[in-house]
From TrEMBL:
Residue stretches making up the NADH:ubiquinone oxidoreductase chain 4 N-terminal domain: 8-86
Catalytic activity: a ubiquinone + NADH + 5 H(+)(in) = a ubiquinol + NAD(+) + 4 H(+)(out)
EC number: 7.1.1.2
The protein's name: NADH-ubiquinone oxidoreductase chain 4
GO biological process: ATP synthesis coupled electron transport; electron transport coupled proton transport
Length: 467
């Protein structure tokens, strides 16, 4: 198939995904014996399909080389299938299997198409870090399945012997995947050594497996974890603040973008951990917005790397005078990364902040620091790459191709125009349940409602969690 028919096919698939991407208000329904969809899983599946198509568009250098293209496409297809099954699994045990299986094609991408010999160390580091952190979760799930004879999300009653300590160990699998500070060390290594497609899918979708798993798992154990809730919330938010400060000291553009993902996921963790409708809806919106934004940043960073031959911000500076078209895209994506309007990141962060601050007013300080430093390191990224005196590494760089413009445009459009979908606006005015499979207790607050009717209770399973 030629170049333009391929682009037409990709655009057709993306158009279908865009039309369906705003369906946040549908109920969950069974699509098979072991697969179930609700609005959150449906949105993340569409995000996976969208990013996979953009990975194909961004991998022009791989296809131009003409070696192992069939294997490359096969790995991308297998990765997409594992993600779709993981996001639609009705069983927590099956979710765990595909949660771990998604590491295999990612590892193959890093090993086969990585840029440097250190990719072996990065791949092994990622595999060992995530697999060993997931073992406590596997033990808890097997114990629960043996006791209740079911692994269905709605029917499980996870109360293992050992109480909160065991459950925090089980949550560690999702914290590493998200990741939180102190368990994030595998992420910068994996991003630095991964090809552009590996970085795009890793930042945009694979990290969301951790957040998705927490939304499914946390309601089942919230009653046992109330004694440790302050510790975990402090870990997430303060760790995010520290990583945000570390971002301001980075000189490698891919490491900076990778660490900024850790800071954004701290806000997602806080929103999920509140178990309120504002917090959970905000976390889902931030995950969706971060999926488009981080993938776009890694994509444009790779374009600059291919032209300059370096990832160093000290050498890459001054691009504005040589490639002004890329400067526009750098600005738009950096603005979205700091949650500037009209990006969906802004609405997601507002909702998450409302949920986190309502959970405890002491959270106002770390949340304010997260918002401030997000703007600081985004501006630092933009200024360091575009301004200053260029050392000349970009002289004679090839112009930006239509394929590259299309790739960046298809990152930016849903990031900024998804908010105008009517169903998203409806969800923001009256937050609806995106997580019906979890059967969790959340407080749903109306933005515009009658006096005395501003709070609705979806269920009463865990009434003590938010008190």
């Amino acid at each position: 198939m030629g170049t333009w028919p391929s682009l037409l096919l990709v655009c057709s698939v993306l158009l279908v995904g865009w039309v369906a991407l705003g369906k946040h208000d549908m109920d969950w329904f069974a699509s098979g014996g072991f697969m179930v969809l609700d609005s959150m899983s449906f949105s993340l599946i569409l995000l996976s399909i969208w990013i996979t198509m953009l990975m194909i568009l961004a991998s022009g250098k791989v296809y131009c080389a003409g070696e192992f293209n069939s294997l490359y496409n096969f790995i991308l297809a297998v990765l997409l299938i594992t993600l779709v099954v993981a996001f639609s699994s009705y069983s927590l045990l099956m979710f765990y299997i595909f949660f771990e299986a998604s590491l295999i094609p990612t590892f193959m991408l890093i090993m086969g198409w990585g840029y440097q010999p250190e990719r072996l160390q990065a791949g092994v580091y990622m595999m060992l870090y995530t697999i060993f952190a997931s073992l406590p979760l596997l033990l808890v799930l097997l114990n629960t399945v043996a006791k209740d004879m079911t692994s269905v999300v709605l029917d499980m009653n996870i109360t293992p012997t050992g109480g909160a300590v065991v459950l925090v160990g089980a949550m560690l699998a999702f914290m590493v995947k998200l990741p939180l500070y102190l368990v994030h060390l595998w992420l910068p290594k994996a991003h630095v050594e991964a090809p552009v497609a590996g970085s795009m899918i890793l930042a945009s979708v694979l990290l969301k497996l951790g957040g998705y798993g927490m939304v499914r798992f946390l309601p089942k154990v919230s009653g046992c974890m109330s004694s440790t809730s302050w510790v975990l919330m402090s870990w997430g938010l303060l760790g995010g603040v520290y990583v945000s400060v570390v971002c301001l000291r980075q000189v490698d553009v891919k490491v900076l973008i990778a660490l900024s993902s850790v800071a954004h996921m701290a806000m997602v963790f806080g929103g999920i951990f509140t178990m309120t409708s504002w917090g959970l809806n905000g976390a889902v919106l931030v995950m969706m917005g971060h999926g488009f934004c981080s993938s776009g940043l890694f994509c444009i960073a790779n374009m600059s790397y291919e032209r300059s031959g370096t990832r160093s911000l000290l050498v890459m500076k001054g691009s504005q005078a040589i490639l002004p078209v890329l400067t526009l895209w750098w600005f738009l994506l950096a603005a979205a990364n700091m949650a500037a309007p009209p990006s969906i990141n802004l609405l997601g962060e507002i909702h998450s902040i409302l949920g986190v601050v309502r959970w405890s007013y002491f959270n106002m300080l770390p949340v304010a620091a997260l918002v401030f430093f997000a703007a600081a390191y985004s501006l630092y990224l933009y200024v360091s790459t575009q301004h200053g005196k260029s050392p000349g590494v970009l002289l004679g760089a090839k112009p930006v191709s239509p394929r590259e413009h299309l790739t960046l445009l298809l990152h930016w459009v849903p990031l900024n125009f998804l908010v105008v979908k009517f169903s998203v606006l409806q969800m923001l005015i009256c937050p609806s349940s995106l997580y019906k499979m979890s059967a969790c207790e959340v407080e749903e607050e109306l933005l515009f409602g009658h006096l005395g009717q501003s709070t609705l209770t979806l269920s009463t399973l865990y009434s003590n969690w938010t008190t």
